[in-house]
Every structure is written in structure tokens, then in C-alpha cells.
Design goal:
single chain; 175 residues; alpha+beta; Aminopeptidase; 27% strand; binds coenzyme A
Length: 175
């Protein structure tokens, strides 16, 4: 069967499959189905799913943090086993940046999550943008509790296209 992939905003009906993908990853924190339904409902415009022949193959949940509406924070991005390493994670992030045109893309990542670190670096390269992966934890082990690893901030940007739009009016939109 042809493996055509459709990328679309999630609906609350996708919540169980989004949760399954998080569980399959063995990396992502697995939240309740209610959480995924809420993300799909309230943050539909900044979240995405990829579907092939009726099955969800990847998802991304994101939002703009309060008072930082030029930033898109990626809460979770997960790609199904069968689709790993085939450019799908990168495609979702690129689509998000192209569609939403944030100045910065952010996420927190554990130091040992090479696939995720490389994913964001690759997106930075795609847009010829800078990236910063902080050594100081954004959330420490103490913040997150027993058995959890520290999360470090990854920030990609500013993205050039947006930069030029903002600079046009002579306004410094970086701060
Ligand atoms: C991180 C994740 C979403 C990447 O998705 P993917 O579709 O497999 O990644 P892509 O194929 O788009 O690859 C993007 C870049 O990451 C690199 N990459 C992907 N998997 C990798 C791996 N296992 N090891 C090292 N680099 C890897 C690719 O080489 C590519 O870089 P390049 O463009 O320089 O070649 C996927 O591995 C995943 O679901 N992981 C579990 C969940 C997770 O950790 N999510 C991120 C934290 S929120």
C-alpha cells in the first residue's frame, strides 16, 4: 500500500493514538488521554499530527508561552517506531515554523537524548538559524522528582524570514 502521509492539526479524537505514540517512544513522559485531548483542543493551531492510511504516525504538541508570543514551545514531539529516521520529525517542525512563523522555537531536552538534540539542530540548519542548547538545566532533577532527568532548554532562532519582517518597521522585536 502507498505510504502517503497527511499532516494536519489534531482533534480530540486523536488523543488515544497520541498517547500510544508517547508510550511507544519509551522516552516521552506518558500523560493521560485527557491531557492529549486538551492539547489537541486548546492548542490545535500550534500542534500537529501526521497520518498514513488512517494511522497516526507522529504527533507534536506545542504552544506559545504566556508573555512570549513570538516563541513556539514544543511540549512533545514523537514519531512512531516504523517512521523513525525518515525525516518525519523534521518535517513536522519545519511545517510548524513555516505556518506559524515564530521568531524562536523552543523545547526542553535531556542531555542524553541525541535524536531530539539532532532534530532541533537539523531544523536550525534547515533555516540557517542559530541554536542554543543550555548547560544549566531549565528544570533540574530536584524540580522534576525521583527518577527524572534534568531538562535543558533548546532554543532555535531567530528565524530570518520573521526577523526581516520585524526589522522592516524598525522595531527591535527580539526582547
Ligand atoms: C526525536 C524524534 C522525534 C526524531 O524524529 P525522526 O523523524 O526520527 O527524526 P528525523 O528523521 O526527522 O531526523 C532529524 C534529524 O535528527 C537526526 N536523528 C534522528 N534520529 C536519530 C538518532 N537515533 N540518533 C542520532 N540522530 C538522529 C537525523 O539524522 C536528522 O539529522 P540530519 O537532518 O542532520 O540528518 C524521534 O526520535 C522520537 O520520537 N523520539 C522519541 C521521543 C522524543 O525524544 N521526543 C523529543 C523530546 S520532546
Amino acid at each position: 500500500m502507498e505510504e502517503k502521509i497527511i499532516i494536519r492539526p489534531p482533534t480530540s479524537r486523536d488523543a488515544p493514538a497520541m498517547r500510544d505514540l508517547a508510550e511507544q517512544s519509551h522516552v516521552l513522559s506518558v500523560n493521560s488521554t485527557y491531557y492529549y485531548a486538551l492539547m489537541a483542543h486548546h492548542f490545535q493551531e500550534t500542534s500537529m499530527v501526521a497520518e498514513s492510511n488512517g494511522d497516526l504516525c507522529a504527533f507534536l504538541t506545542g504552544y506559545s508561552p504566556p508573555r512570549h508570543d513570538n516563541t513556539l514551545f514544543v511540549w512533545q514531539v514523537g514519531v512512531g517506531k516504523k517512521w523513525l529516521g525518515r525525516g518525519l520529525g523534521k518535517k513536522l517542525l519545519i511545517e510548524l515554523v513555516v505556518e506559524k512563523q515564530p521568531l524562536f522555537l523552543e523545547a526542553t531536552i535531556t542531555l542524553d537524548n541525541k535524536p531530539s538534540i539532532n532534530l532541533f539542530r537539523s531544523v536550525a540548519r534547515h533555516f540557517s538559524a542559530d541554536h542554543l542548547f543550555t548547560t544549566t538545566p531549565f528544570f533540574s532533577e530536584e524540580d522534576l522528582g525521583a527518577g527524572e532527568e534534568a531538562e535543558h532548554l533548546m532554543r532555535v532562532g531567530p528565524f530570518e524570514t520573521i526577523k526581516s519582517t520585524f526589522m522592516y518597521g524598525g522595531t527591535n522585536a527580539y526582547i
